[in-house]
């Protein structure tokens, strides 16, 4: 009797130990991988823009592959071999279009040296369109009698995936060229929001936020918001001091390297702000020295905390709709690459739109390029119009007549 | 119908006994979670068969009462064709504003037709948010596209009004915010048992927007380039349709593609040559008029669209010398042509060889979802989409063609960008331009 009871006790202890161990083991693996990913992030930043572009492209391809694989599983379309080929072909086409447009803009000097590249740049849109059309015609020709609907579904699935994944990655690269800080800060803010919301939810979480993600809580949401504000503010302060992060990335055709040397723009120059009177009475400080970029980071943090989670809810809804637990099993403990990047989608687009609307104007070298393509008469008329305007503003001395 | 039903059921045992790489896969094949499996296999059958209500107006019915039923259909179809072509001419006569309105109306109708098909396929009538969200996304995307275009072309008008200035300067941000609001509404509207359905409709809406709204926007941009770039591509596609039909009717023997059994190789090739000739003649006829040839501009004094300009080189008659081989055959040494006619040959070639793929795509789509026509808007022809399915690729091709081979950047747009730059940047560009113009001899060299 006692031996059996001892065995039961021992087995119960072993069970408890194993369950605790496996939960801790899961938590441990997750933690180690998180640290590994964050370290990898820092290392890639150190290695510079080219590595960053390559990493972004790799992530994009992996995300695309994960979503397309889900489509195959949903629609049992393994037996249509054309579809893999066509999906990858469309990915290459769309990437060629986007990266061609970007590279032509930023590698202007290099392009003008090579004649073959000149041809590709001048007729870039036409070539991209032709490549896409070839894929479209191949799709139409590959329609098989009993599988019409399946093929149309996969076609639409591929296109929506391209729309989401490739556009985002392209916008991330464009943000990168604006200055590495516009790449690092948004991504860090989203990661920080994830971690902060998790911590606040772990310690204080009580009220569920949304049925889609039962683990999220209002306490985590709001606590994450404030935590992210603070972290973003500090991070912006730390990074805005270095030219390496702040300057637009340019391609130096002599050294064949990317460089970031410039006169930092106004938003990265420390300025004195005066508090409104109400705040002055509370804080007993009259002024504070801030980088204007820190105020921009507050806007980015607000977006990441309030709207960014909707990207996560969208991905959760998607996983529930198709009854998958994770997008893939690429990262142990975390799921697939898409699982890590689902909140980043909206952030990249928002950052790009924000920059385009509030930060920068047109790119001067791009405007000059456009000017040089015009007809001589048009160039002359624009030249005259410019000269008159510059004289009116007093930038040019008035004409001596 | 039965094949799809069998496929729906046949997949289930595969997924149960097959690979277990994802636990979700078993559930996918079986009940599919929240009863979606049944919906999936039933979705093979159209819920509502195409309406059998005869849409033809009464007067047409009376006119064809006495005829043979087959001739009756052909007659109605012919009358409606003529009506549509006359409508096309009338709208051209009424000018650019009417054309823009007509394009927008057609776009909205196409969107509505495709979304209705999606509702029928997915039985999603009982999700009332979806209609609202689909129309909201349509308005957002239209606002984005038309805002960009109008800001470009109505530059003078915009600079007068301050409120418009604000809308133009932050246009992308405002459009993005509007879209985001719709996105968040979608996420908040996800209902527990209908996740997959809602995601399908979301994707359906977006793909439809991608196809329909982008095309209509490109059509309007082509229009602003010059009415001829609007009229000739559309006419070429219509002409190709008619020519291929006639050649197929008289000479058709070899089927072209399984998707469209009525199309034949004779119709395809005959249509190609017929379209070449028609396009050539049409280009010749239209290239002589300023009304068609000049870029459409908004005249802020008269508040009207005008098309007055010095016609560009491609609309000026030029002498071309035939190569010797052709000279021996034709005994003509030179010929007077508008260069635009050569461009029209390229457009005709595209419309005849690649344009039909748009039609095959639409045919495959209709077969996939087992509908006979997109809708019943036009008696004898089907829906608006049925008439415009070959036009999709044409509008995009024309736009890409113009952007690559015909025009350069828009000078006024470049000037606008210049004026937004910082003064130092303006000065540096000014100096760079001055040096280049001097190098080319357009400006007199500086007196130093």
TrEMBL record, chain A:
<feature type="transmembrane region" description="Helical">
    <location>
        <begin position="217"/>
        <end position="240"/>
    </location>
</feature>
<keyword id="KW-0548">Nucleotidyltransferase</keyword>
<comment type="pathway">
    <text>Lipid metabolism.</text>
</comment>
<keyword id="KW-1133">Transmembrane helix</keyword>
<protein>
    <recommendedName>
        <fullName>Phosphatidate cytidylyltransferase</fullName>
        <ecNumber>2.7.7.41</ecNumber>
    </recommendedName>
</protein>
<dbReference type="GO" id="GO:0016024">
    <property type="term" value="P:CDP-diacylglycerol biosynthetic process"/>
</dbReference>
<dbReference type="InterPro" id="IPR000374">
    <property type="entry name" value="PC_trans"/>
</dbReference>
<feature type="transmembrane region" description="Helical">
    <location>
        <begin position="126"/>
        <end position="144"/>
    </location>
</feature>
<keyword id="KW-0472">Membrane</keyword>
<comment type="similarity">
    <text>Belongs to the CDS family.</text>
</comment>
<keyword id="KW-0594">Phospholipid biosynthesis</keyword>
<keyword id="KW-0808">Transferase</keyword>
<keyword id="KW-0812">Transmembrane</keyword>
<keyword id="KW-0443">Lipid metabolism</keyword>
<feature type="transmembrane region" description="Helical">
    <location>
        <begin position="293"/>
        <end position="315"/>
    </location>
</feature>
<feature type="transmembrane region" description="Helical">
    <location>
        <begin position="80"/>
        <end position="99"/>
    </location>
</feature>
<feature type="transmembrane region" description="Helical">
    <location>
        <begin position="179"/>
        <end position="205"/>
    </location>
</feature>
<dbReference type="InterPro" id="IPR016720">
    <property type="entry name" value="PC_Trfase_euk"/>
</dbReference>
<comment type="function">
    <text>Catalyzes the conversion of phosphatidic acid (PA) to CDP-diacylglycerol (CDP-DAG), an essential intermediate in the synthesis of phosphatidylglycerol, cardiolipin and phosphatidylinositol.</text>
</comment>
<keyword id="KW-1208">Phospholipid metabolism</keyword>
<dbReference type="GO" id="GO:0005789">
    <property type="term" value="C:endoplasmic reticulum membrane"/>
</dbReference>
<feature type="transmembrane region" description="Helical">
    <location>
        <begin position="151"/>
        <end position="173"/>
    </location>
</feature>
Automatic annotation (TrEMBL), chain B:
<protein>
    <recommendedName>
        <fullName>Phosphatidate cytidylyltransferase</fullName>
        <ecNumber>2.7.7.41</ecNumber>
    </recommendedName>
</protein>
<comment type="function">
    <text>Catalyzes the conversion of phosphatidic acid (PA) to CDP-diacylglycerol (CDP-DAG), an essential intermediate in the synthesis of phosphatidylglycerol, cardiolipin and phosphatidylinositol.</text>
</comment>
<keyword id="KW-1208">Phospholipid metabolism</keyword>
<keyword id="KW-0808">Transferase</keyword>
<feature type="transmembrane region" description="Helical">
    <location>
        <begin position="173"/>
        <end position="191"/>
    </location>
</feature>
<keyword id="KW-0594">Phospholipid biosynthesis</keyword>
<feature type="region of interest" description="Disordered">
    <location>
        <begin position="1"/>
        <end position="56"/>
    </location>
</feature>
<feature type="transmembrane region" description="Helical">
    <location>
        <begin position="264"/>
        <end position="287"/>
    </location>
</feature>
<feature type="transmembrane region" description="Helical">
    <location>
        <begin position="226"/>
        <end position="252"/>
    </location>
</feature>
<dbReference type="GO" id="GO:0008654">
    <property type="term" value="P:phospholipid biosynthetic process"/>
</dbReference>
<keyword id="KW-0548">Nucleotidyltransferase</keyword>
<dbReference type="InterPro" id="IPR016720">
    <property type="entry name" value="PC_Trfase_euk"/>
</dbReference>
<keyword id="KW-0443">Lipid metabolism</keyword>
<keyword id="KW-0812">Transmembrane</keyword>
<comment type="pathway">
    <text>Phospholipid metabolism; CDP-diacylglycerol biosynthesis; CDP-diacylglycerol from sn-glycerol 3-phosphate: step 3/3.</text>
</comment>
<keyword id="KW-1133">Transmembrane helix</keyword>
<feature type="transmembrane region" description="Helical">
    <location>
        <begin position="340"/>
        <end position="362"/>
    </location>
</feature>
<dbReference type="InterPro" id="IPR000374">
    <property type="entry name" value="PC_trans"/>
</dbReference>
<dbReference type="GO" id="GO:0004605">
    <property type="term" value="F:phosphatidate cytidylyltransferase activity"/>
</dbReference>
<comment type="similarity">
    <text>Belongs to the CDS family.</text>
</comment>
<feature type="transmembrane region" description="Helical">
    <location>
        <begin position="198"/>
        <end position="220"/>
    </location>
</feature>
<comment type="pathway">
    <text>Lipid metabolism.</text>
</comment>
């Amino acid at each position: 009797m006692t031996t059996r009871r001892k065995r039961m006790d021992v087995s119960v202890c072993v069970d408890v130990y194993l369950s605790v161990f496996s939960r801790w083991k899961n938590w441990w693996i997750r933690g180690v991988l998180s640290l590994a990913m964050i370290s990898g992030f820092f290392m890639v930043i150190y290695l510079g823009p080219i590595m960053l572009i390559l990493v972004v492209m790799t992530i994009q391809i992996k995300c695309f592959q994960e979503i397309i694989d889900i489509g195959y599983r949903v629609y049992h379309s393994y037996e249509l071999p054309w579809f893999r080929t066509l999906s990858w072909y469309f990915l290459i086409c769309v990437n060629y279009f986007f990266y061609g447009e970007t590279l032509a803009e930023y590698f202007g000097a290099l392009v003008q040296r090579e004649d073959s590249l000149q041809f590709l740049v001048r007729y870039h849109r036409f070539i991209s369109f032709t490549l896409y059309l070839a894929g479209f015609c191949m799709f139409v020709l590959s329609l098989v009698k009993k599988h019409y609907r399946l093929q149309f579904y996969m076609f639409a699935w591929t296109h929506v995936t391209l729309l989401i994944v490739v556009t985002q990655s392209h916008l991330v690269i464009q943000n990168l060229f604006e200055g590495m800080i516009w790449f690092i800060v948004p991504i860090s803010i989203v990661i920080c929001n994830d971690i902060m919301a998790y911590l606040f939810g772990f310690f204080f979480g009580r009220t569920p936020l949304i049925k889609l993600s039962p683990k999220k809580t209002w306490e985590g949401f709001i606590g994450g918001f404030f935590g992210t504000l603070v972290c973003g503010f500090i991070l912006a302060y730390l990074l805005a001091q270095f030219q390496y992060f702040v300057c637009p990335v340019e391609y130096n055709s002599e050294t064949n390297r990317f460089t970031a040397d410039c006169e930092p723009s106004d938003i990265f120059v420390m300025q004195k702000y005066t508090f409104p009177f109400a705040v002055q009475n509370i804080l007993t400080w009259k002024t504070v020295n801030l980088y204007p970029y820190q105020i921009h980071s507050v806007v980015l943090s607000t977006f990441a905390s309030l709207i960014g989670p909707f990207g996560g809810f969208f991905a959760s809804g998607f996983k529930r709709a198709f009854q998958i637990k994770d997008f893939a099993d690429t990262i142990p403990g975390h799921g697939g690459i898409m699982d890590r990047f689902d909140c980043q989608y909206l952030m990249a687009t928002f950052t790009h739109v924000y920059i385009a609307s509030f930060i920068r104007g047109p790119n001067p070298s791009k405007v000059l390029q456009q000017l040089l393509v015009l007809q001589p008469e048009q160039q002359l008329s624009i030249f005259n119009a410019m000269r008159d305007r510059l004289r009116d503003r007093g930038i040019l001395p008035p004409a001596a007549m």
